[in-house]
Design brief:
The complex is a heterodimer. By secondary structure, chain A is an alpha/beta fold. In chain A, about 35% of the residues lie in helices and about 30% in strands. Chain A folds into two domains: about 220 residues, 3-Layer(aba) Sandwich (Rossmann fold); about 70 residues, Alpha-Beta Plaits (2-Layer Sandwich), CATH 3.30.70.100. Chain A is built from eleven helices and 13 strands. In chain A, the strands form three sheets. Chain A has a six-stranded mixed β-sheet, with helices on both faces. Chain A has a four-stranded antiparallel β-sheet with strand order 11-12-10-13, covered by helices on one side. Chain A has a three-stranded antiparallel β-sheet with strand order 2-1-4, with helices on one face. By secondary structure, chain B is mainly alpha-helical. At the A-B interface, helix 2 and helix 3 of A face helix 2, helix 8 and helix 14 of B.
Amino acid sequence: MHAIHTTDLCKQFNQTRAVNHLSFSVEEGEVFGFLGHNGAGKTTTIRLLNGVLEPTSGRAVVLGLSPYSQGEELRQQTGVLTESPALDERLTAVQNLSIFADLYGVPRQEVKKRVDDMLGQFDLADRADEKVGGYSKGMKQRLAIARAFLHRPRLIFLDEPTSSLDPISSRGVHDMIRHISQEEGATVFLCTHNLTEAQRLCKRVAVLEKGQLVAIGTPHELGAQVGMALRYQLEVSESTIQTAQSVLSTVAGVSEMTVDNQHITFSITHRETVADMMTMLINHGVRVYSLVAQEATLEDIYFALHDEGNAS
Amino acid sequence: MTQWMKWNWRGIRAVIRKDLLVVFKNRMVIAPMLILPIIFTLLLPLLVGVLYLNAPADDQGFSNAVGEFESLVQNIPLNDTAITTLESLKARSLYLIYMYLFVPFFLMLPVMTGSIVAADSFAGEKERKTLEALVHTPLSDFELYLAKWLSPLITAMILTLLSAVMYGIVVNGVMLSGFGRAIFPNWAWLVLLIWVAPAIACMGLGVTVWASSRVSTFQEAYQAGAFVILPITILFIGQAAGVIYFDVVISLILGAVVWAFDVFLYTLGARRFSRGAILSRLT
């Protein structure tokens, strides 16, 4: 079942089209990455999907509901980490969380325990009764994430969740995202600039440019889409390197071959060919020590897409 | 089940709790909210009482000033018989001051004290960048608007009723010590405090909340709401000039008219309120 499904979703503000014919789906339980530079339309998309904004045209179905006409029902089941932590700094962490627990209808008898648990999980328990205004940037961000997870939503929108966190806190948030996705089955819609984060967490990613979807798929699929062939490094015995070179030159899709001592580095257009290629090498008596994939990173792909967008 | 019973009252209460906590944790906000009631309902009536009770009998200027009130006393509604039981002109004029001339203060007080919370309702959230989290909660636009209207109204009415208690202690203290009579409250005052003052507060604060949802800063919202004070000031002048005297019937009618206008004002405001439009103005 789709957690999110949009068809030709558009949002126009005066002369600006913030979201332009957006069509995509996110599976339930998936961690979905939404990449794009500032002003690409990521935040507007979250607002449209959570029923805060009315689309100019097009359609969205989120958790089986229409976001705009069934907004209250939908928002009961979603959690949002906004771009800024949006915490009341004159209130304590406990007050901030318990007010939102009431707003999201967490059962009254569970509020205290749930608030304490979240503060513990995000390492804020010892400063729970202090005013949030005195917190560091990272602590505020952790508290805002705790608030988004507090009512155990089925779908979580995270807008730059680790942008102001140190590496240890970031790892904690990544673990939390994996946990709620894998153990609790929640869907995570992750807007991020952090491509390494997206690569680590997301099964699929979408890239947004000026409100338009320019690519969607697994990082591997996106690599293929922008013509970034897969790079592999093969290590073989010195005595069979000539044979290996000969065999590789006959494999369809192999190109850009370079040889360095016992290593042959080459590009290949289809990952599926690798298995056949290995069989051929072994059948020809090549002694293979290792084969290491050097896939294009999401960063490479993102910049390739960005450049492509600018060029067009 | 009627519609209002289906509303998310727990969520509405949570927003009110949040707003009141935020406001009452800010000394810069509390100070002006407390100073007004202290001046109008404690110090001023106390000063008037002390001056009246301690004025020498042979002070010609004072006697002339008190004499001026006699014509105003003639205009007091006939059903207010309490004044006729007061023997001295001094007592009757003090009764007039306490029971009639101070009325407009109590009509202005809820609007003036609550307008800080009302102006903060949306504009303050925008300034503190907390609005975005709130609009993503399950509250409907109608419920969110209602919560933001109720927060200042509750604040204003709590302060007004506490002020009335304080005022009653001062007034009865002065009248008891000077003339052996407690005069506050009478039925007209009770209707005024429970029926008319909340209605006028609801109107004034509603306009300020509406303004707060349309502008970007607390200051703009506060200034936009200030024009509501004007018609109330006119009432005050009318009262002082002896044109309007609040008795029970007039208060009940006035309250009903203002409440009807409040319902119209709220419906209009809530229908035009959109969380999306507020956010769009932010970005």
